[in-house]
């Protein structure tokens, strides 16, 4: 996939430094800094209106930052000699002329970027759209539009992939395909930055996350680390008709027991076998005994609580 | 740069818009040519008084020039629309993102659109002129006037129309960058071109009567569509300035709209 040229190791690193964008009444992005490493899938997360799209557009020189800068491999996007050979971007699904065929859409881009014409056919095959090559864009389903966008991004065989909400409008099969595709690209050593608000999908896909809210950085790091950094760790969830008896049985141990509004016990500090053994010893009847790990969604909601919403 | 121009031409070729505009240009020849042939017959035959075509304007060369440029008044509108659509399509179909990702140097993008538009304007001029030349020469030869192609009046009309085509396509691109809303740009430009000339003519006539100074009429050249008409109209009179004044005004508009368009596009946030 690569052209065999030796490259410095950081040529695919994305560095965002003190980036801000002030629109007339709203500071869409506020002093945002983060880095994105090659060889990993980085999820760019935030509630609606957090400034994800604006940040990605500033990274690609489509929107001019008010202050700060964003570089890819140490250079601003417009300073890249051959931008499409370096960076591929998928920004919105509906970005082709409705009356133009899929293959011609890609050929126009090839012509502008000085790429060989057959790259259009290769990229279309890569995303499985060859049968629809000569169909007009207006006849494409949302999923096909997303695939065409990815094909366009792959034309220059870039080292860096930037995708804004690529899973939008994809069916489960399409989402699974996308996951495998992006993980494959990262495994080849490419940088993959994906914005999304589908947290369960991100937990399956991303190695690292950058979480923003209200235009500001909330947390950055590997997914496990971000989840592990939260106050609430692993909990054991127990449903039982004898809640009081079990609580008493566990009182001597290291665990702490909470009862939620439905009467379900949430026990922190001990593992499920310990709870099960204690229940058996105390003769307590159990209806459910499960280990609950904090997931990205819970961490995300906790981190961005109060910062979401319309600005 | 040649890559970019190729890409712009490919964009036009791969949609059906240019077909519709080409059909429009051919239809306007189809309508204008018989009328102009009838005009030629009437005026050169001595019946031009009825519709105010007398003197030089009723001569065979002047009428042949009119015949050989049949349909190009509306033809100019169509090439201008191509120029407009080359820019506004990018915003209407949200392809500006793709375009500026492939080429972050936005000045180069607009300049390549200007070049591609001029090439297209030239193609439209060439095809319509060839049709007019063939039809006109046959009509004139059949009526024993000879082809009149040796006359400077005729050659001049052909060349000035070529210039008009180049300028109006560039102007179209400029208008597209100023008014990125597709419908807004198309309607504004069409109204300015088609209706504007008459209204402006009337306004200046009223102004000239009010000031009791017919020289004021010459100032209608500041209106682009009027400048275009003045440029391709042979002869000078007390009502209208010389052709080159029209040409200079028109080139001025093309330059200003092109430069303002580049500057605006460089600053614009694409979202």
UniProtKB/TrEMBL annotation, chain A:
Molecular function GO labels: ATP binding; ATP hydrolysis activity
Signal peptide location: none
Transmembrane regions listed in the UniProt entry: none
InterPro entries: AAA+_ATPase, ABC_transporter-like_ATP-bd, ABC_transporter-like_CS, P-loop_NTPase
Keywords carried by this UniProt record: ATP-binding, Nucleotide-binding, Transport
Statement: the UniProt record of this protein carries the keyword Transcription regulation: no
Repeat recorded as keyword: no
Similarity comment: Belongs to the ABC transporter superfamily.
Name of protein: ABC transporter ATP-binding protein
UniProtKB/TrEMBL annotation, chain B:
Name used for this protein in its record: ABC transporter permease
Organism of this sequence: Micromonospora endophytica
């Amino acid at each position: 996939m690569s052209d065999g040229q030796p490259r410095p190791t950081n040529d695919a690193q994305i560095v965002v430094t003190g980036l801000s964008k002030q629109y007339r009444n709203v500071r869409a992005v506020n002093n945002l800094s983060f880095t994105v490493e090659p060889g990993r899938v980085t999820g760019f997360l935030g509630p609606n209106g957090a400034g994800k799209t604006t940040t990605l557009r500033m990274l690609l020189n489509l929107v001019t930052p008010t202050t700060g800068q964003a570089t890819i491999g140490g250079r601003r996007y417009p300073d890249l000699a051959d931008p499409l050979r370096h960076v591929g971007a998928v920004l919105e699904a509906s970005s082709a002329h409705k009356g133009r065929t899929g293959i011609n859409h890609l050929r126009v881009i090839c012509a502008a970027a000085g790429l060989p014409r057959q790259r259009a056919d290769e990229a279309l095959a890569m995303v499985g759209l060859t049968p629809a090559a000569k169909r007009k864009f207006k006849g494409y389903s949302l999923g096909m539009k997303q695939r065409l966008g990815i094909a366009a991004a792959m034309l220059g065989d870039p080292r860096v992939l930037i995708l804004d909400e690529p899973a939008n409008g994809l069916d489960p099969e399409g989402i699974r395909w996308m996951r495998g595709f992006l993980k494959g690209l990262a495994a080849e050593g490419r940088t993959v930055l994906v914005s999304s608000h589908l947290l369960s999908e991100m937990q399956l896909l991303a190695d690292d996350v950058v979480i923003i809210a209200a235009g500001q950085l909330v947390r950055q790091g590997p997914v496990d680390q971000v989840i592990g950094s939260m106050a609430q760790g692993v909990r054991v969830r127990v449903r039982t008709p004898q809640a009081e008896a079990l609580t008493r049985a566990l009182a001597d141990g290291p665990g702490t027991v909470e009862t939620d509004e439905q009467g379900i016990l949430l026990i922190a500090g001990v593992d499920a076998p310990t709870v099960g053994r204690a229940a058996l010893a105390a003769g307590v009847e159990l209806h459910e005994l499960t280990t609950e790990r904090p997931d990205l969604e819970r961490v995300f909601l906790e981190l961005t609580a109060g910062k979401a919403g319309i600005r | 740069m040649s890559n970019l121009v190729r890409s712009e031409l490919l964009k036009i070729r791969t949609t059906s818009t240019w077909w519709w505009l080409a059909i429009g240009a051919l239809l306007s020849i189809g309508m204008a040519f018989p009328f102009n042939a009838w005009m030629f017959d009437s005026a050169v035959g001595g019946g031009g008084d009825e519709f105010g075509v007398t003197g030089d304007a009723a001569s065979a060369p002047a009428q042949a020039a009119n015949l050989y440029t049949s349909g190009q008044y509306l033809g100019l509108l169509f090439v201008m629309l191509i120029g407009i659509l080359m820019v506004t399509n990018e915003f209407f179909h949200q392809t500006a993102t793709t375009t500026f990702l492939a080429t972050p140097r936005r000045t180069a993008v607009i300049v390549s659109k200007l070049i591609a538009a001029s090439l297209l304007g030239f193609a439209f001029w060439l095809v319509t002129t060839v049709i007019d030349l063939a039809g006109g020469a046959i009509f004139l030869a059949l009526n024993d006037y000879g082809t009149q192609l040796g006359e400077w009046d005729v050659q001049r009309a052909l060349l000035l129309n070529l210039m008009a085509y180049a300028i109006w396509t560039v102007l179209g691109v400029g208008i597209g960058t100023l008014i990125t809303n597709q419908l807004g740009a198309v309607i504004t430009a069409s109204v300015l071109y088609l209706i504007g000339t008459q209204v402006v003519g009337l306004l200046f006539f009223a102004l000239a009567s009010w000031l009791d100074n017919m020289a004021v009429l010459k100032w209608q050249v500041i209106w682009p569509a009027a400048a275009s008409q003045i440029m391709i109209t042979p002869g000078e009179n007390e009502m209208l300035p010389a052709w080159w004044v029209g040409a200079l005004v028109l080139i001025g508009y093309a330059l200003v709209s092109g430069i303002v368009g580049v500057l605006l596009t460089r600053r614009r946030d694409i979202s």
